[in-house]
Fold this sequence. Notes:
By secondary structure, this protein is α/β, with parallel strands linked by helices. 51% of the residues lie in helices and 12% in strands. The strands form three sheets. The chain has a five-stranded parallel beta sheet with strand order 5-4-1-6-7. It has a two-stranded antiparallel sheet with strand order 2-3. A two-stranded parallel sheet has the order 8-9. Strand 4, helix 7 (130-139) and strand 5 form a beta-alpha-beta unit. Helix 2 (29-42) crosses helix 3, helix 2 (29-42) packs across helix 5 and helix 12 (237-264) crosses helix 13. The longest helix has 28 residues, at 237-264. The radius of gyration is 28 Å and the shape is elongated.
Amino acid sequence: MKKNIDQAKVVSFDIFDTLIKRDCYKPVEIFSIIEDRLNKKYNTKTNFKEKRINAERKAIILNSDKEIDITDIYKCFPKMVGISKDEMIMEEEQTELNLCQPNQFAIPIYKYCMEKNKRIIIVSDMYLKEKIIKKILYKANIRTYEKIYLSSECGASKENGNIFKIIIKDMKVSPQDIIHIGDNLRRDYISPKRHGLRSALIGNHHNNIIIDKTYKTTSYRNLLEFINNHYPRNKDLFYRLGFEVQGPLLLGYVKWLNDDLKKEKIKKIFFLSRDGQIVQRAFNFINPNMESKYLYVSRKSLIIPTIWMSPEIKDVQKIFKWPTYIDIYQFLKLRRCVSACEP
């Protein structure tokens, strides 16, 4: 990568999944997040995701002679009672801004280009307005570049390669003096090569600490993408275990606990020392409105309350730590403990 950059005068970066990654595993998940927010805000079922996808498809068909932008999409969006199209556009733009993070694998490449005083440009097939793209880049501390080329603004795309013709003319250099860096094989690697540019491909999962092939639920995949985007690479193994294992486990447990408490109509909850402290902190973060208390209690004092409802030998066996060999005295002592629990 460095060798290719050294030989170029202009470095062109793709944006999404190259310089920027979203905290969701697919772009359409943004529409799911917006739908959840609108449903809660207006206390109704909006079906925003489905309507948004269909609106974009319709806009592409109706505007086959040009590259569409977000305004074209929402012109094809059906009217929703009480929610204006301008509000939905603002909601989508803000959600994009909130979810976008710097790609920790690509940022060092970008910084290397700055160190080498290369002319940097940003190129994307994107329907968002340039002002929003600038905010996303600024948030990711990507602030040094000569120009942004968006398909919606240029009327040309990476897909057909016409945007690279515009870039060659604007930069006033030969195609071989430009290298384009991106993640898409067709748009970011093959297409620029066809127009004489150098190109380099960045894989989508180069920077992932987790590439999970077991859990297929959408919420878990989004969580993994969040973890991959935010995990600091300079931390040790134990910090990584917190992100990769303890965090998801704790989140899943307190969400289950919260749902179960609501189901049982429980208004107050106690967390017992000392294992319960981190659980309480996580629970309070998820549900700050429910009253919770942290209670100091010894483990031994909990043994009898644990088995009082079912004081059988088999239950005692599960709770007590049994030695390899046990004499009759120890057995009768345990039996007396069980008898104390019996009605």
